[in-house]
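Priority: medium. Attachment 1 of 2:
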């Protein structure tokens, strides 16, 4: 039998010869490993190992491609991920790209860039590179309904990273970009229905002439509110914030509301309480307010239902209201109704007479921040000089005006009117100086 095997396998060695070969090989391998570890410095060793890994992992058979069609299946449903990539990828284009699509939309000032099929876009996420390519379907009368698709290619090792984190990151960035571009709407109540139009008020926190510290405090409060959706849920409170804006006419209450809406990208619901005749009317109006929104009730002191009844003095000079609803109770009820949904809810009351309002309506949790908008003073005027006249930094006439504003009370609305009349900054400032002189003279007489 053994001789038979020898015949078929002439080089077949005995067991002891195999052990000898094995022992020699192991000794040799150990020697190589020791020499590699001891003679080659650590950095060079790591470099060589990473190169070898990269070589094996960069082989084409380790690449995975995900195809992201314009539509899902053969239905006409938009594929959200395709739309997200369409918006997201142009933000990853760098100046080294050689082939791009470019265009301009009628109502936009800037040029738009888009991915071209002949150019791959490489994105980096968590230190890993991902390659995107646009695939265009050029077949005319094709039975495929898709015209474009993205192909996302990555190394197989990153499969989980892509599905669990990278794609969610692309979708989240797209949502943020959409809300950044969104123009809020303003809704007004006509009869029993809300009608809406785009909020065209251009006021932003940048253009508002407010004391910088107050402005920062408001922006910080809004940003904290926006960020804490999960926190409100955790502590079992409705995701809601109330602001009371009070101060004389022309100090910027409406402008601040527009700036808040433009900052949060929330729609505004402007509710005129005089059109509300009963609790059920009010409840219906509130129930129709959808998604993340700002409910504004301007000049709230003009409604008897919100007056401080412990102050008998005021009732003589106020028009009698319907007395048919209780705003405080109703807002509690609405909080309960809305607390289940994930929508943010901002309530803004404005008034020229804070002292007339029932304190129950102004307590924290109802009106969390009371913002006093007052007559124009130096730091806020510096902002107007910059926005209206382009004057930055120290300017002798601006300093003179700041001093005069300490001696008189004028609203930003009045000063704005003076600044807008003259295109020449020096003439505009001079006219304002003359106006303020006259104002101070009249007040001291
Ligand atoms: N703080 C401000 N910063 C910049 N502009 C302002 C400011 N306040 C008022 N203005 C200008 O004055 C105009 C009137 O202001 P706005 O309507 O915001 O005041 P208001 O306090 O709401 O007045 P009212 O109480 O009469 O409604 C605005 O169009 C705006 O241009």
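Attachment 2 of 2:
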């Amino acid at each position: 039998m053994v001789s038979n095997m020898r015949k078929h396998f002439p080089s077949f060695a005995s067991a002891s010869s195999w052990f000898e070969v094995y022992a020699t090989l192991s000794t040799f391998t150990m020697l190589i490993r020791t020499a590699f570890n001891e003679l080659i410095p650590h950095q060079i060793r790591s470099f060589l190992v990473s190169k070898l890994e990269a070589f094996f992992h960069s082989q084409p058979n380790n690449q995975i491609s995900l195809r992201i069609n314009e539509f899902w299946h053969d239905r006409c449903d938009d594929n959200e991920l395709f739309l997200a990539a369409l918006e997201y990828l142009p933000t990853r284009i760098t100046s080294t790209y050689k082939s791009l699509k470019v265009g301009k939309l009628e109502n936009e000032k800037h040029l738009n860039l888009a991915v071209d099929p002949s150019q791959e876009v490489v994105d980096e996420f968590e230190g890993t590179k991902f390659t995107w390519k646009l695939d265009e379907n050029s077949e005319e009368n094709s039975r495929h309904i898709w015209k474009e698709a993205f192909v996302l290619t990555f190394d197989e090792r990153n499969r989980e990273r892509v599905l669990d984190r990278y794609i969610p990151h692309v979708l989240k960035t797209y949502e943020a970009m959409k809300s950044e571009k969104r123009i809020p709407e303003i809704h007004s109540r006509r009869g029993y229905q809300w009608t809406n139009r785009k909020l065209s008020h251009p006021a932003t926190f940048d253009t508002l002439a407010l004391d910088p510290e107050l402005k920062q405090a408001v922006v910080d409060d809004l940003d904290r509110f926006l960020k804490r959706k999960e926190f409100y849920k955790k502590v079992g409170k409705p995701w809601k914030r109330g602001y009371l804006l009070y101060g004389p006419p022309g100090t910027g209450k409406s402008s601040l509301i527009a700036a808040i809406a433009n900052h949060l990208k929330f729609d505004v619901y402007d509710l005129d309480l005089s059109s509300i005749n009963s609790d059920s009317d009010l409840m219906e109006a509130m129930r129709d307010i959808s998604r993340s929104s700002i409910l504004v009730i301007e000049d709230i002191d003009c409604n008897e239902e919100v007056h401080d009844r412990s102050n008998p003095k005021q009732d003589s000079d106020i028009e009698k209201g319907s007395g048919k609803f209780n705003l405080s109770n109703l807002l509690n009820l609405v909080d309960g109704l809305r607390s289940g949904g994930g929508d943010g809810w901002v309530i803004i009351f404005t008034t020229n007479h804070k002292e007339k309002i029932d304190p129950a309506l102004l307590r924290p949790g109802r009106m969390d921040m009371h913002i006093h908008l007052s007559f124009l003073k130096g730091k806020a005027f510096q902002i107007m000089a910059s926005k209206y006249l382009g004057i930055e930094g120290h300017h002798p006439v601006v300093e003179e005006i700041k001093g005069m504003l300490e001696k008189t009370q004028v609203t930003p609305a009045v000063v704005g009117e003076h600044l807008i009349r003259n295109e020449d900054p020096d003439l505009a400032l001079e006219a304002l100086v003359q106006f303020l002189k006259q104002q101070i003279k009249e007040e001291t007489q």
